[in-house]
Amino acid sequence: MLVLVPPDFIFHPVEGGIPTRDEARFLPYGALSIASFLRSRGQRAMVAPLQWYFQRGTRYRHFDDGTEASREAFEQRTRHVLEALMRRLRPRALGVSIGYAIHHSAAEIILGYLHRFWPEIPVLVGGNHATHTREHWLNACRGVDAVVCGPGEAATLAWLEARRSPAAPAALRRHRADDEAASLAVPVDLDLAALPHWAPVGGFMHLLATSRGCSHRCAFCTSRLMWRRRQGRPREAYTAELEGLVARGVDRVLLADDMLDPRDSGFAELVDVLARFESIRFGAPLRLDSLRHCNPRSLTRAHIEEVFVGLESFSPEILRAMRKDLRVDCLARIDTDLCRLRDAGLKVTLFMLVGHPGATRSLDMVSIERCQTLVERGVITGLSAVHVAPYPGTALASMVERGRLRIIEPRMNRWTLDRPIVEELDPAGRPVYPEAEQRATFEAFQDICRRTSAYVERQRARLRGT
């Protein structure tokens, strides 16, 4: 089976007549997990991250400046890439992994070509976005044989084994918990990535998941709906992955868990494993309410040098609307908790959201002022602010259906999160937080971001690279 991972098909500023942007180089971890599981069960499987077939140097070519000509150019390039892959790998079945709304349009183009030129090859669609938009792929896209709902490993194997049966269901439901546990025990094999010669595996930033799922129910997130509650992976599985990364000379790894929790029974074991890999430096996600329970020495012993905290807002009102399930006292002691990390030599990046229902310009100003102070004091080294999006399957998407949110940008492939996407409406249908005010808030966050040490270092690295 060949799993195709669509490239982004989105608008970005045009440089020299070709839409381009800087691109973080990550391999599709979820698709590789599925392929690795299939290989462990005797199936032939590879993953083609199509984004890198559009890569030129360190710039990613989008072909989408909003014109029909740009879309045609993208389609022509896509057809060329698909034809080359089909000749090279000769798959007997195809999977299309649609993990994000930003891939929506590109996935439609890919599926159209597959149905037109290779109608005899069965096609399975899956991924986070596909799970929550499965009716679209089954009804609006010709040639889709089935959609995986939820985790893909066991369901994909079952589909491959039963795909010749006329009774095979179109929507493949979640499998038993023991099937999912078995898939978590299989190490991800990077050798299953079918890459162009100009994108060697060693040139990527690499992910490592030590768990899957999340125990929280934030209104803007689909993780709990997709993966259920957090499940830890066996120590042997992620240890084997780390050994493979070391063998390839990888020295930086981002832990891809939804959220690590120092209170979890497996956290001490995780620290012991990471501490063994002295040549790797890790980045790790932590929730604000877990910081007080976190010993910075444990993080540094595990070679974790950067911590990412999804705070989203300093306003208790907005946090309640987000269903973040954070106690007010967590906000009161955030300076103390973050200073403990800084004093241990750890870098800290805060993530903030703009435009969430319940937010206003005045409430967001509280977050802007607090972030400004933390940057000036050197407590945080990085700041990332994005606009909120009503991703299918989230509580925000249901607010759109009920008329409580107005979608500003209806094209999901344009949900780049750097511009307003929704406005909350009051009972009279007026916007509570107008688009223009959201833009002003976002720019204020960006101004602070440009003064963080992490941003300055990235700019210096880019200049060194040129």
Describe this structure in words.
The protein has a 6-stranded parallel beta sheet, with helices on both faces. The protein has a 6-stranded parallel beta sheet with strand order 11-14-15-16-17-18. The chain has a 4-stranded antiparallel beta sheet with strand order 2-3-6-5, with no helix packed on it. The chain contains 18 helices and 20 strands. Residues 13-23 have low confidence and may be disordered. It folds into 2 domains: 2-183, 3-Layer(aba) Sandwich (Rossmann fold), CATH 3.40.50; 205-465, Alpha-Beta Horseshoe (pyruvate-formate lyase- activating enzyme), CATH 3.80.30.20. It has helices at residues 29-40, 68-89, 104-117, 128-132, 134-139, 153-162, 177-184, 223-227, 235-247, 267-275, 296-301, 316-322, 328-332, 334-343, 361-376, 395-401, 435-449, 453-465; strands at 2-5, 14-15, 18-22, 46-49, 55-56, 59-61, 94-97, 123-126, 146-148, 171-172, 206-208, 211-212, 231-232, 252-255, 281-286, 304-312, 347-354, 382-387, 405-407, 422-424. With 466 residues, it is of the alpha/beta class. The protein starts with a strand and ends with a helix. Helix content is 39%, strand content 17%.
Short account of what is shown:
By secondary structure, the protein is α/β, with parallel strands linked by helices. It is built from 18 helices and 20 strands. Helix 10 links the parallel strand 14 and strand 15.
Give the SSE layout.
Layout (H helix, E strand, L loop, with lengths): L1 E4 L8 E2 L2 E5 L6 H12 L5 E4 L5 E2 L2 E3 L6 H22 L4 E4 L6 H14 L5 E4 L1 H5 L1 H6 L6 E3 L4 H10 L8 E2 L4 H8 L21 E3 L2 E2 L10 H5 L3 E2 L2 H13 L4 E4 L11 H9 L5 E6 L9 H6 L2 E9 L3 H7 L5 H5 L1 H10 L3 E8 L6 H16 L5 E6 L7 H7 L3 E3 L14 E3 L10 H15 L3 H13 L1
Parallel strand pairs: 1-4, 1-7, 7-8, 8-9, 9-10, 11-14, 14-15, 15-16, 16-17, 17-18
Antiparallel strand pairs: 2-3, 3-6, 5-6, 12-13, 19-20
Helix pairs in contact: 1-6, 2-3, 15-17
